[in-house]
Amino acid sequence: MQNPFISFSIKVILLLVVAFGFHLGVLKFLNLPLFENKIIASYIINLTLVIVVFGVLYLLKDKYTSQLGFLFLIGSFLKFAVFFIVFYPFYKEDGEITKLEFAAFFAPYVLGLILETVSLSKWLNKVS
What is d(CA 11, CA 17) in angstroms, rounded to the nearest whole number? Predict the structure, then answer.
């Protein structure tokens, strides 16, 4: 049986690499700047945070089975904190957050969150 953490990590890496390529393709098709709005940092940081949060949950799964949902929420809070520390000041420099800036952060965030939530829910259903 394959380790769920390794399987999850491979899935999230593949998903975000494909999403990044698609994201760049849409930007190129629309003749918009490809590598602005911290898009590369956004994908890398979101990928790292999703894998770290899932890894921590995996390590704590036996000791804190009944608290995994709360630990997941703490991980989500951590991701928002990183957004407000790393990305928000940069995006608000001109006084507004544009759709491109929002998409640069939100696309990898939501994809990672969906995969993390689905994987964790399958995992918790097996534990119960």
Answer: 10
* Nearest alpha-carbon partner for 76 in 54, 43, 104: 54
CA distances (Å), 17 to each of 12, 97, 111, 118, 127, in order?
8, 25, 11, 19, 30
Q: Is the pLDDT of residue 1 over 70?
A: no
Q: pTM, whole model, 2 decimals? A: 0.87
Backbone angles phi, psi at 90, to 5 degrees: -65, -45
Percent of the chain, pLDDT > 70? 98
Average pLDDT over residues 21-37: 90
Domain that holds residue 76: 4-127
* Nearest residue to 53 via CA among 109, 97, 122, 2: 109
Which residue's entry shows tokens 């904190």? Answer: 81
